[in-house]
Design brief:
Keywords: Cell membrane, Copper, Glycoprotein, GPI-anchor, Lipoprotein, Membrane, Metal-binding, Signal
Number of helices: 6
Subcellular location: Cell membrane
Strand content: 25-35%
Main location: membrane
Organism: Populus euphratica (Euphrates poplar)
Family: Belongs to the multicopper oxidase family.
Strand order of the largest sheet: 10-9-12-17-14-15
Length: 592
């Protein structure tokens, strides 16, 4: 009996040690996404949209810095699917980025679990399906990373947190839009702008028909709210404003900003901002929330305006009067660019870590690589209209780049993306940037197209150090902001202008650099940056996931039963602990 008691004591000690180790680790948060088509009428006409768990837009993912996140995605569409977590840096794990350069797609009727840690990040982001222009039909939602309690935020805790998803919208679904692009046509003017998946409030009976469901955001008078705004649209820059209310900018894509008031702010495709808005107006009426198209002929685009309602709990009437005006600079982009330049990094605020954001002195680091990426209007290659970056129209590989490296698949891509634009005719190629591990790269985004573009780099926050009209030259470096340029993942490049960014290449993996304009992205305006640690250690890159999908040259490795093993044992930690405790309880009578 004594021996049994000693064995039980020793067993319980081991169980307690295991439990303490599990509980001391960063918490797990899990979500289930069922991605399917539903019928909705955001602009008053029934159409097919992409929903998550039957909802359009999808649910908000709400986590805390360093949480481990498991998202099981079930594909109920009739085509392949990936989910991309835009702005989530996927430290050491480009395997989870959800883009065709790193992941094989989830086939129809299959499910796959993304599992990653939101390591050392805070802020406002969003997710969406990146394949086949699917974002133009929905499938998007907000992704919030909150500060840990021990890290102070640089403003008083808001009374509430509000998500606003804005974006241009077509009554045609993504399949029809894709067919138009394949036929060499432009998408044309959008049919409207949605706010949280809903059409405009009927502020004008001529421009807005009856029967459209609109978004209402209810607030309490005198309280301050954090309002997170994301442009999840197809290709249109939008000006965001709230009637009679100031927008105090506080954060953008994971970086706290110098706090400044704006009456309106241009939000370009793929960008996210947090505003602090105090409900300090009288409640005689509701107020308009507006998102309207920028840099267009206002008279022709009036109907491409999203309008929602800000409703005080003690409001005495409906919103009235004309909409608050947008900046009157249709043919002068100087206002918008100066506004963009005014957005600066709060160097004294703590981000995800206790040290101030400005302790990373990016302006004093020597640049190791320089890439000038030039965008031009669409060109024809082999008789097809294509979009290019530095003369190259990207072709997605049949075997994702990261998988090709892992299994030594030859010829999947080439590490030959040029540092300066090609001088010969444009070409189609799977051409990738060869990044230097722990290098410091300068990228010039030269937009010689006639329309606005915004560019996104996965895996990183980039420092926006300069922008101006004309052609970039080496003398342009004299204008760079080397102290408090905002760090973010998506930056605009104005037509006929350049934007300069700096990025520290410390995240091993394969990372997508693309235009966020869905039409140009679909037609090939992207590349990838490949970062390899020559020492090949798990400290700088996690191993390939157990549930990795295989395609292309590696299709023979895929087994149907692999899909059922969607979550690793760490993802089911709570179940594991429960089973261990049950085992202890069951054994107690035996050793009693």
């Amino acid at each position: 009996m004594a021996l049994r008691s000693k064995f039980l004591a020793l067993f319980l000690i081991h169980i307690c040690l295991l439990l303490s180790l599990c509980l001391a680790a960063d918490p797990f948060v899990s979500y289930d996404f069922e991605v399917s088509y539903i019928t909705a009428s955001p602009l008053g006409v029934p159409q097919q949209v992409i929903a998550i768990n039957g909802k359009f837009p999808g649910p908000t993912i709400n986590v805390t810095t360093n949480n481990n996140v498991a998202i099981n995605v079930k594909n109920k569409l009739d085509e392949n699917l990936l989910m991309h977590w835009s702005g989530i840096q996927q430290r050491r794990s480009s395997w989870q980025d959800g883009l065709p350069g790193t992941n094989c797609p989830i086939p129809p009727k299959w499910n796959w679990t993304y599992q990653f840690q939101v390591k050392d990040q805070i802020g406002s982001f969003f997710y969406f399906p990146p394949l086949h222009m699917q974002r133009a039909s929905g499938g998007f939602g907000s992704f919030i990373i909150n500060n840990r309690a021990i890290i102070p935020i640089p403003f008083d805790t808001p009374h509430g947190d509000v998500v606003i998803l804005i974006g241009d919208w077509y009554k045609r679904n993504h399949t029809a839009l894709r067919k138009a692009l394949d036929a060499g046509k432009d998408l044309g003017m959008p049919d409207g702008v949605l706010i949280n998946g809903k059409g405009p409030y009927q502020y004008n009976t001529t421009l807005v028909p009856d029967g459209i469901d609109y978004e209402t955001i209810e607030v309490q008078p005198g309280k301050t709210y954090r309002i997170r705004v994301h442009n999840v649209g197809t290709s249109t820059s939008l000006n965001f404003r709230i009637q009679n209310h100031n927008l105090l900018l506080a954060e953008s894509e994971g970086s706290y900003t110098v706090q400044q008031n704006y009456t309106s702010l241009d939000i370009h495709v793929g960008q996210s901002y947090s505003f602090l808005v105090t409900m300090d107006q009288n409640a005689s009426t509701d107020y308009y929330i507006v998102a309207s198209a920028r840099f267009v002929n206002e008279s022709q685009w009036k109907r491409v305006t999203g309008v929602a309602i800000l409703h005080y709990t003690n409001s005495k009437g409906k919103a009235k009067g004309p909409l608050p005006e947008a900046p009157n600079d249709e043919f002068d982009k100087t206002f918008s660019m100066n506004q963009a330049r005014s957005i600066r990094w709060n160097v004294s605020a703590s981000g995800a870590r206790p040290n101030p954001q400005g302790s990373f002195r990016y302006g004093s680091i020597n640049v190791t690589d320089v890439y000038v990426l030039k965008n031009k209007p669409l060109v024809k290659i082999n008789g097809k209209r294509r979009a290019t970056l530095s003369g190259i129209s990207f072709v997605n590989p049949t075997t994702p780049i990261r998988l090709a490296d892992q299994f030594k698949v030859k010829g999947a891509y080439k590490l030959d993306f040029p540092e300066t634009p090609l001088t010969g005719p444009p070409k189609m190629a799977t051409s990738v940037i060869n990044g230097t591990y722990r290098g410091f790269m300068e990228v010039i985004l030269q937009n010689n197209d006639t329309k606005m573009h915004s560019y996104h780099l996965s895996g990183y926050a980039v420092f926006v150090v300069g922008m101006d009209y004309g052609e970039w030259t080496e003398n342009s470096r004299g204008t760079y902001n080397k102290w408090d340029g905002i760090a973010r993942s998506t930056v605009q490049a104005y037509p006929g202008a350049w934007t300069a960014i700096l990025v520290s290449l410390d995240n091993v993996g394969v990372w997508n650099l693309r235009t966020e304009n869905l039409d140009s992205w679909y037609l090939g305006q992207e590349t990838y940056v490949r970062i390899v640690n020559p020492e090949k250690t798990n400290k700088t890159e996690l191993p390939i996931p157990d549930n990795a999908l295989f395609c292309g040259e590696l299709s023979k490795l895929q087994k149907p039963e692999d899909i059922s093993f969607a979550v690793s044992i760490t993802g089911n930690r709570s179940k594991l602990l429960f089973m261990l405790l049950m085992a202890v309880c069951a054994l107690m009578p035996v050793f009693g």
